[in-house]
Amino acid sequence: QVQLVESGGGLVQAGGSLRLSCAASGNIVSISAMGWYRQAPGKQRELVATITSGGSTDYADSVKGRFTISRDNAQYTMYLQMNSLKPEDTAVYYCHMNARYYTRIPYQQRGPYDYWGQGTQVTVSS
Fold it and tell me: Is the Cβ–Cβ distance between 36 and 80 less than 8 Å?
């Protein structure tokens, strides 16, 4: 009942910038947690940044000062602004949301459940 669609990945030179977007659709009641993860070839998936429903943010040490996570509550959209990109940032980036949804007949709330995007490739060349 909830689908995440990511966009904004691509190829960029070191020092450049990209902005990733993640839009959620469906009968959403609420989203309690949102974040971005990434996974490089041969590496484990790691947490990049998170944002709560109240707007509090947290970042991995490797991206602090360079990345900014934000959200648009009205449209259930999350963003990751990535500046001063380094080759080490090369990875597939995944959007994650923890959300409740509802059914109409009968009305009923379900969840919360974890939802993941398909991933978007970010490649930073030296």
Answer: yes
pLDDT tens for 31-63 read 888 999 999 999 999 999 999 888 899 999 999
Q: Which residues of 6-36 are buried (b: 16+ CB within 10 A; e: fewer)?
A: bebbeebeeeeebebbbbbeeebeebeebbb
pLDDT tens-digit map of 70-82: 998 777 899 999 9
Question: How is 21-48 classified by DSSP, letter by letter?
Answer: EEEEEESEEEEEEEEEEEE-TTS--EEE
